[in-house]
């Protein structure tokens, strides 16, 4: 579904990804784990078109993503739920959900999707007319995910969804990832919480300074002594 | 009762004027809010398009055609400005983008003067002049029409924002550009739209202005920018409802101040624009977040958008701009050349011009400290030069003061004035200082034009020649050396300060004020110091100017002077001291060379102001230091390490 080959990108003069290759099949949860600064977020930003590709190829369902603008990539069916949630703080919850459907024009279906989001997270419905900045961190994460779903994506890029959440919320977030996957969404999950991410992932990659160091199924990597020592604090 | 009705009448008039300001302010605030860009071309765009409409109407083209055409022109110009001046600079330093917007303002102003003349054009009173007498006071019905028309266009705009897809995107882009992009909002198109709407609304404002006063003229542009800026800040940046209310308020305050000021205190009506400035300062002191509070946090948007790229760009600008190596050898050499120059160059015309270059260099060096090193917006150097010039002129004319004493007093007074306006403004944010100093320059000029002791527009001629220990400074050569001494002293001071811990503190503030503060730097004190030194040097430059020209007039200190000084700084490179002198030399040289095409000169300069930031944001001649250093090293037979890439 998503196929990345020899990808290089960076900011200004600094190259962050140097020839990274990665693959994601339809219906999979693929986790990318690695230390701070390994380039995990950069990878997602490049896929969603926020950063330009410097070298390499990147295709989604056979169509090249290289050189496309973020809005076109959303239209192709990729939603990026950014690190730190990034809800629009001065817009209401309702408005935040609506903007998630910016690329769509089917009003009735948008309405239905918003209702679905409220059914999934009743707490959002209760506060639909409040500003998003009034929500707690966990609620904001629910909003960010719901907002991402509003574009009806086939692939969801999730950047550190558990970051800064309470342990209970962390559980809920990983449950949510599984739930979305069961509904047929493919998911590329970037996480620092490697143990949890590997536990739910079908396959996973370990990133070290802009390159893939290891790849395998989730359980394989979880059992790998090297990974244990370096990333899982074991 | 009659008094009260008269008051109500003034309020009504004020609201009509305020409606025009509101239309200007909303566009300005939107652009400012989304991109943190101060669009100094906003007022000139409004003037240009409105004069265009007036010209069409004079040619007897129907109103029904002329106004839509004018709005189209305003929209298109807005779009072109975005595309050419701002988009290439979106992630570059904001100061540089401001220079580019001033360049656009120059071109528009010069354009309207070129096509339709400097003078006022008649504008038909489209909304009539009906007045309804109530108890002996005539109520202007027109004012109500104006207010209604402004509110109607704002309502239309509001509807567009709410109902249309692209319009609704504006609010999200204003909050978070990258995330908006992830939602599928086309960022570039949305930003273009903001400029287009801003342009169109300002033209509606221009038509209403023309309909109230019956005339439009090129010079209405800059006050328009200032009013829009003030209303945007007072209303809370990016808060459109706030801008509307602040615009109306500004119109009322201005009208009331002018009418009652004249009635009770005999205040000249020329002080009209001062009202806006005073309102702003009062506001800054009491409520720096603006009337309604800033609903959208713009700092965040700017920071996120420019993350990465801007940091790198800034660093490179700095690295390129700092010419540390050759200074030790170059400075004495340059001074020696300058000292010997009059032996070779005997043409008095050139010597006078070079002296003027030195004078400008002093003022630009000051700007370099505050803007180039410390990153604080200071746009009113003309005002401080005027203070210095007039102080020296008055002292030399009316007292027996020696010119050296006069010079120091001039610098001191400029410094004091700088502290008076800088302390409240610097407490908050760099942008406010920009606005306050901009307006301050104009206020100083207004005071000079309207005061007895300065002899108004006639100026002060016949300033005595300076004299020191019985030696009179008379010939151009004398003045050349006098200017050179001042420049060397000023340069030495700047070099010393920027090399010390103070310079390091300034640079830290420039890079990241919050981080600097966290490092224990008392940022307020250092900002004030940079600003104060800049004002001081401005005052010194002005004082010298007065003695060389032997006359001072208000026209010397118009806004163009402040702008000129900024261009010199950017051309030479911010944070690059030798660059300041080179920038001044280029601009003065260009002005002299362009004399034959005087009627398009400022458009030409405007073009330079747009092109240089795009192609060389670090300044035109910033590599000069290292280049010269390499040459110098080759002459001496040694090679500096690394700098020229390793050699053969």
Write the layout of secondary structure elements.
The complex is a heterodimer of chains A (234) and B (648).
Chain A (H helix, E strand, L loop, with lengths): L1 E10 L2 E11 L4 E6 L5 H8 L7 E6 L2 E2 L5 H7 L1 E4 L11 H8 L6 H14 L1 H5 L10 H13 L5 E5 L7 H16 L3 E6 L2 H7 L2 E6 L2 E7 H6 L1 H7 L3
Parallel strand pairs in A: 3-8, 3-9, 6-7, 7-8
Antiparallel strand pairs in A: 1-2, 1-4, 4-5, 9-10
Helix pairs in contact in A: 3-6
Chain B lengths: L1 H34 L6 H17 L4 H24 L7 H23 L4 E2 L8 E4 L2 E4 H23 L1 H11 L1 H6 L4 H27 L1 E2 L4 H15 L4 H26 L6 H15 L11 H9 L2 H13 L5 H18 L3 H26 L7 H18 L4 H26 L1 H21 L9 E2 L5 E2 L2 E2 L3 H24 L1 H11 L1 H6 L4 H27 L1 E2 L6 H14 L4 H17 L7 H15 L8 H13 L12
Antiparallel strand pairs in B: 1-4, 2-3, 5-8, 6-7
Helix pairs in contact in B: 1-5, 1-6, 1-8, 1-9, 1-10, 2-3, 2-4, 2-8, 2-9, 3-8, 4-25, 5-6, 5-8, 6-8, 9-10, 9-11, 9-18, 10-11, 11-18, 14-19, 15-19, 15-20, 15-22, 15-23, 15-24, 16-17, 16-18, 16-22, 17-18, 17-22, 19-22, 20-22, 23-24
CATH topology category name of the largest domain in chain B: ABC transporter involved in vitamin B12 uptake, BtuC
Question: What is the typical, i.e. mean, pLDDT of chain B?
Answer: 80
How many strands, what sense, and barrel or not for the largest sheet of chain B? 2 strands, antiparallel
Number of helices of chain A: 10
Based on Cα principal axes, name the global outline of chain A.
globular
Reported CATH architecture of the largest domain in chain B: Orthogonal Bundle
Range of strand content of chain B: under 5%
Can you tell me the CATH class of chain A?
Alpha Beta
- Unreliable stretches of chain A (pLDDT < 50, length at least 5) are none
CATH class of the largest domain in chain B: Mainly Alpha
Query: Going by CATH, what is the homologous superfamily of chain A?
Result: P-loop containing nucleotide triphosphate hydrolases
Number of domains of chain A: 1
> pLDDT below 50 for ≥5 consecutive residues: which ranges of chain B?
294-327, 638-648
How big is the Rg of chain A?
17 Å
The shape of chain B is globular
Q: Give the class of chain B from helix and strand content and strand pairing.
A: mainly alpha
Mean pLDDT of chain A: 91
């Amino acid at each position: 579904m998503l196929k990345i080959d020899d990808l290089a990108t960076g900011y200004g003069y600094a190259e962050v990804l140097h020839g990274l290759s990665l693959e994601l099949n339809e219906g999979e949860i693929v986790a990318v784990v690695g230390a701070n600064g390994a380039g995990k977020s950069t990878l997602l930003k490049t896929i969603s078109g926020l950063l330009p590709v410097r070298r390499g190829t990147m295709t989604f369902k056979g169509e090249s993503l290289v050189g496309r603008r973020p809005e076109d990539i959303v239209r192709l069916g990729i939603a990026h739920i950014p690190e730190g949630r990034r809800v629009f703080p001065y817009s209401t919850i309702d408005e935040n959900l609506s903007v998630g459907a910016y690329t769509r024009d089917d009003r009735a279906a948008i309405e239905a999707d918003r209702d679905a989001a409220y059914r999934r997270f009743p707490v959002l419905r209760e506060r639909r007319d409040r500003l998003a900045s009034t929500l707690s961190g966990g609620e904001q994460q629910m909003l960010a995910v719901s907002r991402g779903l509003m574009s009806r994506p086939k692939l969801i890029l999730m950047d550190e969804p558990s970051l800064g959440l309470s342990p209970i919320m962390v559980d809920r977030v990983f449950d949510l990832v599984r739930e979305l996957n069961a509904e047929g969404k493919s998911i590329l999950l970037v996480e620092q919480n490697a143990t949890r991410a590997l536990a739910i992932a079908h396959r996973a990659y370990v990133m070290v300074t802009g390159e893939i160091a290891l790849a395998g199924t989730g359980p394989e990597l979880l059992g790998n002594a090297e990974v244990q020592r370096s990333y899982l604090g074991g | 009762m009659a008094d009260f009705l008269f008051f109500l009448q003034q309020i009504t008039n004020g609201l009509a004027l305020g409606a025009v300001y509101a239309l200007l302010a909303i566009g300005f605030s939107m652009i400012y809010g989304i991109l943190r860009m101060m669009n100094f071309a906003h007022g000139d765009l409004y003037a240009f398009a409105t004069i265009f409409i007036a010209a069409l109407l004079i040619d007897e083209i129907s109103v029904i055609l002329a106004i839509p055409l004018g709005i189209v022109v305003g929209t298109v110009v807005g779009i072109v400005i975005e595309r050419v001046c701002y988009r290439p600079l979106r992630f570059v330093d904001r100061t540089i983008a401001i220079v580019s917007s001033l360049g656009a303002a120059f071109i528009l102003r010069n354009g309207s003067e070129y096509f339709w003349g400097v003078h006022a054009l008649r504008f038909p009173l489209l909304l009539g002049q009906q007045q309804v007498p109530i108890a002996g006071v005539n109520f202007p019905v027109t004012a109500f029409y104006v207010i209604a028309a402004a509110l109607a266009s704002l309502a239309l705009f509001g509807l567009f924002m709410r109902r249309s897809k692209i319009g609704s995107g504006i609010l999200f882009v204003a909050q978070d550009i990258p995330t908006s992009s992830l939602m599928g909002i086309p960022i570039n198109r949305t930003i273009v739209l903001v400029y287009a709407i801003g342009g169109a609304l300002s033209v509606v404002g221009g038509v209403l202005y023309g309909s109230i006063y019956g005339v439009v003229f090129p010079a209405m542009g800059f006050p328009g920018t200032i009013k829009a800026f003030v209303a945007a800040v007072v209303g809370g940046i990016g808060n459109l409802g706030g801008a509307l209310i602040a615009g109306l308020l500004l119109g009322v305050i201005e009208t009331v101040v002018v009418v009652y000021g004249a009635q009770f205190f005999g205040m000249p009506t020329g002080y009209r624009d001062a009202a806006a400035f005073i309102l702003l300062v009062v506001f800054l002191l009491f409520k720096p977040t603006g009337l309604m509070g800033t609903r959208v946090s713009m700092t965040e948007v700017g920071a996120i958008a420019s993350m990465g790229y801007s940091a790198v760009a800034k660093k490179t600008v700095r690295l390129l701009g700092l010419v540390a190596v050759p200074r030790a050898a170059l400075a004495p050499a340059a001074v020696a050349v300058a000292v010997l120059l009059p032996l070779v160059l005997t043409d008095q015309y050139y010597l006078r011009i070079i002296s003027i270059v030195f004078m400008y260099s002093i003022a630009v060096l000051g700007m370099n400290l505050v803007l180039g090193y410390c990153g604080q917006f200071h746009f009113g150097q003309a005002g401080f030069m005027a203070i210095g010039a007039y102080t020296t002129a008055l002292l030399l004319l009316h007292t027996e003061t020696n010119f050296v004493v006069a010079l120091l007093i001039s610098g001191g007074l400029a410094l004091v004035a700088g502290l008076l306006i800088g302390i409240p403004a610097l407490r908050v944010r760099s942008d406010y200082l920009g606005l306050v100093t901009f307006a301050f320059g104009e206020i100083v000029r207004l005071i000079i034009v309207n005061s007895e002791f300065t002899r108004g527009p006639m100026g002060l001629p016949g300033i005595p020649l300076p004299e020191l220990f019985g030696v009179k400074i008379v010939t151009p050569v004398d003045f050349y050396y006098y200017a050179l001494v001042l420049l060397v002293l000023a340069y030495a001071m700047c070099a010393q300060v920027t090399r010390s811990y103070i310079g390091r503190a300034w640079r830290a503030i420039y890079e990241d004020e919050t981080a600097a503060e966290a490092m224990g730097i008392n940022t307020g004190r250092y900002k004030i110091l940079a600003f104060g030194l800049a004002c001081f040097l401005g005052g010194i430059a002005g004082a010298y100017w007065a003695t060389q020209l032997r006359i001072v007039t208000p026209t010397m200190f118009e806004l163009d002077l402040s702008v000129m000084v900024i261009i010199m700084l950017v051309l030479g490179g911010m944070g690059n001291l030798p660059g300041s002198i080179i920038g001044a030399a280029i601009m003065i040289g260009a002005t002299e060379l362009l004399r034959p095409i005087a009627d398009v000169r400022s458009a030409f300069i405007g073009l330079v102001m747009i092109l240089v930031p795009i192609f060389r944001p670090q300044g035109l001649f910033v590599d000069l230091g290292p280049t010269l250093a390499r040459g110098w090293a080759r002459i001496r037979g040694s090679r500096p390490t690394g700098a020229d890439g390793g050699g053969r």
